[in-house]
Design goal:
The chain is an alpha+beta fold and 429 residues long. The chain contains twelve helices and 16 strands. 34% of the residues lie in helices and 22% in strands. It is globular and about 80 Å long. The chain binds glyoxylic acid and manganese (II) ion (MN) (2 copies). GO terms for molecular function: hydrolase activity, acting on carbon-nitrogen (but not peptide) bonds, in linear amidines; metal ion binding.
Length: 429
């Protein structure tokens, strides 16, 4: 039997590659799989078939997440959740998120091929929105599962003005049921996520795998700069209140402040819309995003305060309006120490080496799921640390080692459970 027909890292990688093109992408010439798009729908059909083939029942939950369930020895057993996300950024890579979902399926397939059932169920979950590629906030669907949505989340609209209700409707889902994707705390034992590192540390230090100790705090802001539009040929330079020139200064201030802190402090303007966006009109309005992150919440908060002050100064000096709205606040999230210890032991089992422990600067569904259950994360090295880019790449051998670490983790998790009842008590959460 070829490696493609039984559980393997090769199959996980090959499936990510299969899903990297249309019809699993909404774009013909690059990968773009936003939440609730046609590519998302086609992807879920394909993943459901793979889940079924691996011995699971598959369903799409009320938030558009794909969920495969591998029953435990008893039908009402609590659940070990393994997952990541299936959406991508525009012109993204094939493995960000998807490889974790595929490795979850391979992990279940590995045990199913051996006829092994656990005293708990395993569910593999592919979150529909982690990136925030469609609506202005990210992690909408893990927040639904963790039961931590805000009221404003249900009123979101995408850049084309399509509201969440309409987008869900096109997917056969209903806004009124969206929050019903929430899981009960007592049913979920733990959430475990495998993900590419998206940074250069593992590769530089020669490790195939790493264990995540914590995930950096994030803010997402929307800035709206309002100037005065006018004729580009007749409006004197000294009379202008050019929203784009002001925004350009603001972008540089964000960059300067992000670069003035510790290495893990980062600040990014990744999206900008210019109105009216015409060559012969002085820009009258600009909207842009600001993403600020740091491993320590206080460092991020201090930088965000400095950004607020700097942008207000620029707006005042240039006599333009500035409206800065906080759209998302994800606190720094430590992974569960007990589960991370199990993951470290699993990595040691398969690599024979002391695992590299690292903080994730990238956001992950695990930071939301930590509000529901204890979480652990496994990182795989990726080529050159490149991610959110089509050049994203992983070695098949590393994916195989990751699969072995995931199966070792689940085995250790089962032993902890069997020896001492539930692996983690309510207090340990
Ligand atoms: C998701 O990939 C993020 O870190 O923004
Ligand atoms: Mn990701
Ligand atoms: Mn990503």
């Amino acid at each position: 039997m070829s490696a493609r027909e039984t559980a393997s890292g090769l199959r996980a990688v090959a499936r990510c590659d299969d899903l990297g093109v249309a019809p699993y992408s909404d774009a013909d010439d690059h990968l773009f799989r936003p939440y609730l798009g046609a590519g998302h729908a086609a992807t879920l059909d394909r993943i459901a078939a793979w889940m079924t083939e691996a011995g699971m029942t598959a369903r799409v939950d009320a938030a558009g997440n794909i969920v495969g369930r591998y029953e435990g020895r008893h039908s009402d057993a609590p659940v070990l959740l393994i997952g990541s996300h299936v959406d991508s950024v525009r012109d993204g890579g094939r493995y960000d998120g998807m490889l974790g979902v595929m490795l979850g399926i391979e992990t279940v397939a590995w045990f199913a091929e051996r006829g092994h059932r656990f005293p708990f169920a395993i569910e593999v979950i592919g979150f529909g929105d982690e990136e925030g590629s469609r609506f202005p906030v990210s992690m909408l669907t893990s927040r639904a599962v963790a039961g931590v949505l805000g009221d404003q989340d249900l009123a979101l609209a995408d850049a084309a003005g399509v509201g969440l209700a309409e987008a869900l409707d096109g997917f056969g889902l209903e806004l009124a049921r969206f929050a019903g994707a929430a899981r009960h705390r007592e049913d979920v034992l733990a959430y475990v996520e495998a993900h590419i590192e998206q940074g250069p540390v593992l590769e530089a230090e020669g490790h195939a795998l790493g264990v995540v100790s914590a995930i950096a705090a994030q803010y997402r802001f929307r800035a709206v700069v309002t100037g005065v539009a006018g004729h580009a040929g007749t409006m004197a330079m000294r009379l202008r209140r050019d929203a784009l020139a002001a925004a350009a200064e603001m972008v540089l201030a964000v960059e300067r402040i992000g670069g003035a802190g510790p290495e893990d402090l980062v600040a990014t303007v990744g999206r900008m819309e210019v109105g009216p966006g015409v060559p012969n009109v002085v820009p009258g309005a600009v909207t842009f995003s600001i993403d600020v992150r740091a491993g320590v919440g206080a460092v991020r908060d201090r930088a965000a305060d400095e950004i607020r002050v700097a942008l207000a100064d620029i707006a005042a000096r240039r006599t333009v309006g500035l409206d800065l709205t906080l759209q998302q606040d994800l606190p720094a999230t430590p992974c569960d120490s007990g589960l991370s210890r199990l993951m470290a032991e699993a990595v040691r089992d398969v690599t024979g080496a002391e695992p590299r422990v690292l903080v994730s600067g990238a956001g992950h569904d695990a930071m939301v799921m930590a509000r529901l259950a204890p979480v652990a994360m496994l990182f795989l090295r990726c080529r050159g640390g490149v991610s959110h880019h089509p050049a994203e790449a992983v070695e098949v051998d590393d994916a195989q080692t990751a699969l072995e670490a995931m199966t070792a983790f689940v085995t250790r998790f089962e032993h902890t459970w069997s020896d001492a009842g539930p692996a983690l008590t309510e207090e340990e959460r």
